[in-house]
C-alpha cells in the first residue's frame, strides 16, 4: 500500500473517488458536499490531495481545502474504498494529509467538523481540539458546502453557531505555546463526545418537533 501526494497522473481515479464518497454518505445518512471528477482532478493537479493505492487499485483519498485567504485549511473528503476498510488506512491517510497541510500552509489553522467518533479520535490524536463554530472560518463558501446535509436546517436555525457536528481545530500558534509549557496530553474521552452528541440530538430534535 502506498499513500502519495496526488498529481494529474491519478486523474483516472477521480470518478471512483466521487462515487465512493457519495455511496459512503448514503450509508451513513449524512450529506457530504457533492464533488465532481473535475473538482477532484483540480485538487490533484495543484498538489492538494493524497491518494492511497494498492498497486494500481484505488484504496483511499483525502484533499485540502483553503479558506479565508489560506488562513484556514480543512482536510476534506476523507474516504476509504470498502475493500480496504477496518485496516487503519483512514488514520494513515489522515496523518499524511495533515503533515502535508502543515508543510504547505505552516501558519494556517487546520479545522474540521464531523459527527463520526472515529474521525474525532484521529483528529484529537493529531492535536486538534474541540471548539465552538465561532472559532472556525467565517467564509460563507465553506458553510454552503453543508447545504446537502440532512441536518442543514439545524445549522441555519442556530445562525451557524451550532449543529450536530463537532468543530475541531488545530492552531499551530497555540501548539507552539503548549510545547513551551510541556503540558501532558490527555486521552481522547469517547464517552464525553458521545454524551455531547446525544445532548445535541435531543435538544435539536425536541425543538424541531415543537415547531411542527
Task: Explain this structure.
With 212 residues, the chain is α+β, with helices and mostly antiparallel strands. Helices cover 44% and strands 21% of the residues. The chain is built from 8 helices and 7 strands. Strands 1-2-3-4-5-7-6 form a 7-stranded mixed beta sheet, sandwiched between helices. β3 (57-67) and β4 form a beta hairpin. The protein starts with a strand and ends with a helix.
Brief characterization of the structure:
This protein is of the alpha+beta class. The protein is 44% helix and 21% strand. It is built from 8 helices and 7 strands; from the N terminus they run E-H-H-E-E-E-H-E-H-E-H-H-E-H-H.
Structural descriptors:
212 residues, alpha+beta, 7-stranded mixed beta sheet, 7 strands
Helix content: 40-55%
C-alpha Rg (nearest Å): 17 Å
Trace the largest sheet across and list its strands.
Answer: 1-2-3-4-5-7-6
Instruction: Indicate the low-confidence ranges by residue numbers.
Output: none
Sheet-strand content, in percent, reads 15-25%
How would you describe the shape?
A: globular
First CA to last CA: what distance? 51 Å
What is the number of beta strands? 7
Structural class: alpha+beta
Order of helices and strands: EHHEEEHEHEHHEHH
Pfam families: Acetyltransf_1 (PF00583)
GO molecular function: acyltransferase activity, transferring groups other than amino-acyl groups
Organism: Christiangramia sediminis
Protein name: GNAT family N-acetyltransferase
